Amino acid sequence: MSNNKITLPIDCVIAVTYKCNSRCVMCDIWKIKDASDLNLTDFTKLPSTLLDVNLSGGETFMHVDLPAIVSVVQKQCPRVRIVISSNGFMPDLIEKKMQEILKIKSDIGIAISIDGIGEMHDKIRGIPGGYDKAMDTVKRLQKLGMTNLRLSFTILPENLKHLKLVYEESRKLGIQFTYTFAQSSDIYFGGKKMDNHPDLISLKDQVGYVINRELHRLKPKSWVRAYFAYGLYQFVSKEKQILSNDPGSRFFFLDPKGDVYPSVVHNFKMGNIKDYKTWEELWQSNEAETARTNVKTKGQPVWMICTARTALKKHPVKVGLWILKNMITGVKLK
User: Fold this and answer.
1) Nearest 5°: phi and psi at 55?
2) How far apart are CA 187 and CA 322, in angstroms?
3) Contact 124, 161 (CB under 8 A)
4) Is the entire prediction scored with pTM above 0.85?
5) What is the pLDDT of residues 231-258, one digit of tens each?
6) Pairing relation of β-strands 109-113 and 81-86?
7) Strand locations in the chain (E)
8) pLDDT digits (tens, 9 = 90+) for 303-316
């Protein structure tokens, strides 16, 4: 692929900080002691083509300039949808910061991690009382008038049987529900090596329940999430990626040091944003092109919402036909 044909990305995850107040069983980011943070000038180089940005961490709200970051990203990427990921363990601070942020971008989204009900969540996140703090944060955000809210669940063998419970909690609260599968990464999660092999019978039961519940909602976004969940089941149970996606092409991951990677699990550095005057220079560099080649020849399968989103947009007919068929017959996972 020649440089003049390289398309600019539309989707990304940006870890604004690796400072963290969780002690999660699936992530060692909190062990990083020499973490540096991205500064505001770094965000002025983001490509204007971005449509979806997930601001993450660490704990995102531990970056002191988070409202200013949202403002810069919004100005740099005028059509962007932004979602902030948080563990929700600082209700007072999050409420205060969100009052500022909502004045900048009123439709911004927040994803609060909930990995089980009560003590199960506290066990996974390693923080006593963490569940109550996170749910307090959710209720405070609702009182601020936020509607773009979601509970975010990470599937592990320990908490798998709580997937239905957290899903139903999201329905009771009237907010969205997303989930992912914990994977190993040399460049994210603090380099944590995961041996994540949930019981497949339980996985079929839990994921199948959520898929069918989502398909029967009168919301197209829920139908697409049902397809994503189907893809996640295939990825976990059969190590099969049902759609091709575009890490390093339509998607990238930016870490707090400024290093750019094709995704959070592809350890092929594309360059550092601090070393280039413009995004285009980085994206068309030899280092970035080598990383894209490595993704194609050495890259591992991946199915996360951040990378799957671009794949879903590329295959609307396939996704749509699956939705229509399974809305009628119901999903029976195999």
Assistant:
1) -85, 120
2) 34
3) no
4) yes
5) 999 988 887 888 877 889 999 999 999 9
6) parallel
7) 11-15, 52-56, 81-86, 109-113, 149-155, 176-181, 251-254, 259-261, 271-272
8) 877 778 888 888 99
User: Could you give the C-alpha distances from 201 to 143, 174, 204, 215, 237, in angstroms and in order?
Assistant: 39, 29, 5, 21, 10
Of 265 and 115, which is predicted with more confidence?
115
For 6-60, the pLDDT digits (tens) are 789 999 999 999 999 999 888 888 888 777 888 899 999 999 999 999 999 899 9
How far is it, in rounded angstroms, from Cα 95 to Cα 166? 22
Strand, helix or coil at 298?
helix
Which tokens go with 204? 């079929």
Encoded tokens for 117: 């009900």
- Residues 40 and 109: their CA atoms lie apart, in Å, by 20
Phi/psi for 298 (5° steps) reads -125, -10
CB neighbour list of residue 233: distance below 8 Å, 6 or more residues apart: 203, 204, 207, 208, 211, 333
The answer to whether 270 and 260 are in contact (CB under 8 A) is yes
Tokens 């094709």 identify what position?
262
* Residue position matching structure tokens 């609307």: 316
Measure the CA–CA gap between 98 and 191, rounded to whole angstroms: 30
What's the CA gap between 91 and 137, in Å, rounded? 5
Among residues 325, 331, 327, the alpha carbon closest in space to that of 216 is found at: 327
